[in-house]
Amino acid sequence: MSTIVDSLTSLASSIAQTIGAVLQSVFVVFQYLLHAILGTIQAVFAALTGAISGLARTFEGLTKFLLGNIVMIGGVVAAFVVYTAYQQRTRTSPGVAPAMQKKTN
User: Fold this and answer.
1) What tens digit of pLDDT does each residue of 48-68 get?
2) Model's pTM, two decimal places?
3) Rounded to whole angstroms, how far apart are CA atoms 9 and 3?
4) What H or E segment, with its residue span, contains residue 69?
5) Helix/strand/coil for 67
6) What confidence tens digit (pLDDT) does each residue in 13-52 have?
7) Element spanning 61, H or E
8) Cα separation of 93 and 71, whole Å?
């Protein structure tokens, strides 16, 4: 009779261990899924941060360029304004001079 009790005890222990292993496997699967989802979200935020940082560096470089060349840009703008005012005052627009006609004898 003790062998039957030992066998039933062993069976119950095996069933309990199997259920525990199944639950542990399910927990590990959900844990890996959670890590994958969080890793993806973290990668998206890192990509967005990198894009915003790159855009900020681009505007920083553009601002440095404009401030470094402000005299040249101002000169070009001033020349354009003066030229436009000259055109409006004289009401002429520069163009190509007409070609001279050939003399034929």
Assistant:
1) 999 999 999 999 999 998 888
2) 0.50
3) 10
4) none
5) helix
6) 999 999 999 999 999 999 999 999 999 999 999 999 999 9
7) helix 2-68
8) 27
